[in-house]
Write a sequence for this structure.
């Protein structure tokens, strides 16, 4: 009986027991709350310059971002790294990547960068700049927004071009061919000239060329054409006179009289011309500066003749024809003197 009384608690003891349990429970809750409060950390997250503050009990940067549904792309910038531990007042900086288009000729490349220079974007696109290439923006320019970069590929090359040299036509006088007739004695051939140029190409299109030098690799061969000069006419007697030149001259006549020649029959040179020939019909005196001695002529109103004599008064376009007598009857005339063809 005494044992049973020991097992059954007294009402006063039950109250004490319950109170003890309550105290233990409250203390446990307070201790847990205090422990939890001690684990809460405040962090700041700055995204593209805008800052947000969060309280968290997470231990890594990755967990904080997931907790607050902040997602990153592979090109976004974040500091500290995702696996870094969180401490009180940790500052997380995120820079969102933006689109940069790089145009190279007809090709377009797109990259995403959170920051950097024009040169950084070009390198990320895998584009190698040549020393002559042109970029629409300075390579050192900082980028902070979507941008279009235009690259012009510039190249140089040397080319050799062959050019035709047209042949010329040379006209030669043929004094044995009738006037109006022509004869090709040599066919013309074009020559060839080589020119070396330095070309400047932008995106494959020529924008500038500079002549470096030239040389003739094949000279042209002229075309040679002979043209006839021999004209002709028929005299009143039906004789054909073929001539290559005609003069209009003042004509007089002379005979063997001493008054005309200044020589008497006893003179050793009496009856001889300046060229040593005996005078006869058909001999005429001329100015050798105009008509060379020995030239065959046809004198209008006189006939065929040969220039074999000279005279002190025969200068310029004057001619003195020999007649056997009565030279004075010939008088002074304006005549045409034809230089005969050979």
């Amino acid at each position: 009986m005494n044992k049973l009384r020991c097992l059954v608690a007294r009402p006063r003891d039950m109250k004490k027991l319950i109170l003890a349990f309550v105290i233990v429970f409250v203390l446990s809750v307070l201790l847990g709350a205090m422990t939890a409060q001690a684990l809460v950390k405040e962090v700041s997250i700055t995204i593209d310059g805008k800052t947000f503050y969060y309280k968290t009990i997470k231990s890594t940067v990755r967990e904080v971002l997931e907790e607050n549904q902040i997602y990153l792309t592979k090109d976004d910038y974040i500091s500290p790294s995702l696996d870094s531990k969180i401490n009180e007042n940790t500052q997380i900086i995120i820079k969102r990547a933006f689109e940069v288009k790089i145009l190279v000729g007809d090709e377009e490349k797109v990259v995403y960068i959170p920051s950097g220079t024009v040169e950084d974007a070009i390198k990320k696109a895998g584009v190698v700049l040549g020393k002559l290439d042109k970029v629409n923006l300075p390579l050192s320019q900082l980028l902070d927004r979507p941008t279009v970069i235009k690259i012009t590929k510039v190249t140089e090359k040397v080319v050799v071009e062959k050019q035709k040299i047209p042949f010329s036509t040379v006209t030669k006088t043929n004094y044995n061919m009738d006037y109006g007739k022509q004869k090709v004695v040599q066919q013309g051939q074009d020559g060839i000239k080589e020119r070396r140029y330095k070309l400047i190409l932008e995106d494959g299109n020529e924008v500038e060329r500079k002549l470096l030098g030239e040389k003739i690799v094949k000279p042209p061969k002229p075309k040679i054409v002979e043209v006839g000069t021999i004209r002709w006419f028929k005299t009143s007697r039906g004789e054909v006179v073929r001539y290559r030149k005609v003069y209009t001259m003042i004509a007089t006549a002379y005979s063997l009289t001493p008054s005309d020649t200044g020589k008497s029959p006893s003179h050793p040179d009496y009856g001889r011309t300046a060229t040593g020939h005996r005078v006869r019909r058909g001999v005429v005196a001329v100015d050798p500066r105009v008509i060379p001695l020995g030239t065959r002529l046809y004198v209008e109103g006189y006939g065929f003749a040969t220039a074999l004599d000279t005279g002190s008064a025969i200068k310029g376009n004057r001619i003195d024809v020999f007649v056997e007598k009565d030279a004075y009857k010939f008088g002074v005339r304006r005549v045409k003197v034809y230089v005969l063809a050979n």
Notes: The two ends are 183 Å apart (CA to CA). The longest strand covers residues 240-254.
